[in-house]
Amino acid sequence: QVAEHGGLNIMSLNKFSQSSSSSSSSSSIRDKKVFAKLKLNLSGDYPRKNAELLSAQYGINLLLVGVALILAIAHRDSSVEEKDLLSFTTGLMILQLIWMLWYILVRRSQRNTRTERDVNATTCWIRAGGLTLLAILSLIMDALKIGYYVGYRLCLSASHVVYPVIHAIHTVAQVNFLWFHIKDVIKSFETFERFGVIHAVFTNLLLWCNGVMSETEHFMNNHVRRTLELEFKNITEGELEPEPELQCNCTTSTCALFSQSFTYLFPFNIEYHIFVSVLLFVMWKNIGRTIDVSSNRKSLVTKTQGLILGPILGLLALVSTIGILVVYITRLEGPREVHQSAISMFYIYGIVMLVVMCSAGALGLLIYRANHMPLDASKNPSRQLDTELLFGSALGSWFLSWCSIVSVLSSNSDPPHRWTNLIYSLLIVLEKYVQNLFIIESLYRRQESVERADPELPTNPEVSSVTASLPPLNGIDNQAYESPGGGSSPTENEQEENGQENGQVYGSQRKQSNVPLPVDSHVAESSNMKRLILKNIAVLLLLCNVSLWILPAFGCRPQYDNGLEEETFGFSTWTNVLNFVIPLNLFYRMHSVASLFEVFRRV
């Protein structure tokens, strides 16, 4: 019995030692995994985040220096002169030119390496219809500025002439860079490239701020002149600073023509720089990013058959907008009654426009609610930035509307446009709310599966469309890579640059199935009708946003002229609010146009 008891003790000890050794080994393996994961995070993700933070801080401080110079110049008696700001921005543009040249040379030296590309970064129509068109108008403005400054060269510093020349070179080089390299996902010299890209982002933001300040100064001088001529607003001498005059005569006979001409091009130059900043910011976010092949696909583009009501209503809104703009500007110079009737006309027009836009956006949201398609949760920096910019730029317009509402409800005066101003301001809040929801849901909604009964789709059963919602198939070439030799893969080039036959995007071939698929013609017709309605809504909202961009961009700004807000907040406070908010509102409208075109392509 003692021997048996001793044997049992030995066996239990052996089992305990085995269990303790196995638990210690498992804990050591677990610790090794934790340390390996921590080491991986510190060696991989931490330097990238650190480089992002450092480069972002560099860009922000670069912008703040420029804004400080702009604010100092706005004060007439400051020791800071305009030539100091022009010299600073010229130096920033030259640095960006050097970086872009270096980047292009490095890419050419790495021609035989495969470079990832983000096909969602931008589209061909954005570069051609948006970027290139705005750049051409900016170049025309530079040419007019050169002619103007040459006429006054005797009393202006050399920086006034050098600046538009460097700006024109910078514009041409930057457009060329964006056309061919905006989709690059940089994986070499990442830290240095982050600083280069963010330098370009904030250089364009500073040029945007400079353009906004110049345009605002020109508009405010005209507004104050008109206000003093009408003599029905009280502006004290401390609130009004006259525009300085040059102390020499123009040596040519075209200075006045140049001065009047390039002021009309300010809105396009402003939109160009903020547009480029957004594109470059997407490129900055893509540095070091691992591309998800399944989501790195071009969206299906269908035909435009049945687009009638949306384009007709949109063109009608556009034509009426031009008429309202001409009548408003001409009648604003008239007597008090004519002046107030012009403001009332604007608000009535705006109310009709906003009611139509709210109704169209609400109809689109109802269609999406009835469809029950899941949202696409794949990572897409470009789409995420679109969402953030829509909400961020809408804040300015919302703030402006609520200021107007407070003024209408608290004002002691009762002009004819008082209550139309209230309705217009409330509709502005509602319209942006509905439109933001419609655009974001359209961009994030997963696209429907392709149905063979759809007459807009190809009839060849061996070719299937590739959408972001489909998983990657075996044998599909990775379009996120360039082919050796520096050019993009043939599939991507055919999809994006050549415009695809019949406006459609095709992917790789699948084996033809011999099993016939049942098709419900009623479901297919219902789906086609929904797509058609959504496309018409997108076109209508696009043209309406263009119309609402044109009015404030070319001087139709009743917030300056109706007098209610100035009575409540004071001339200086209210003009400062408008000078900050109106550029955001202009950007919101132009960004909505770009987003709605993407919605139109995705439906």
Architecture overview:
Belongs to the otopetrin family. It is a multi-pass membrane protein. Residues 451-503 are annotated as: Disordered. This protein has 603 residues and is an all-alpha fold. The protein has helices at 2-74, 82-109, 124-151, 158-181, 190-230, 255-263, 266-285, 309-331, 336-371, 381-410, 418-444, 490-496, 521-553, 558-561, 564-569, 571-602. The protein contains 16 helices and no strands. The chain is 70% helix and 0% strand. It folds into 2 domains: 45-231 and 251-288, no CATH class; 303-446 and 524-602, no CATH class.
Q: What are the SSEs and their pairings?
A:
Layout: H1 2-74, H2 82-109, H3 124-151, H4 158-181, H5 190-230, H6 255-263, H7 266-285, H8 309-331, H9 336-371, H10 381-410, H11 418-444, H12 490-496, H13 521-553, H14 558-561, H15 564-569, H16 571-602
Helix pairs in contact: 1-2, 1-5, 2-4, 2-5, 3-4, 3-6, 3-7, 5-7, 8-9, 8-13, 9-11, 9-13, 10-11, 10-16, 13-16
Overall spatial form? globular
Q: Taking all residues together, what is the mean pLDDT? A: 77
What is the SS-derived class?
mainly alpha
Number of strands: 0
What does this entry show, briefly?
The protein has 603 residues and is an all-alpha fold. Helices cover 70% and strands 0% of the residues.
Descriptors for this entry?
transmembrane helix, 2 domains, ion channel, Otopetrin 1, transport, 603 residues, 16 helices, Otopetrin, mainly alpha
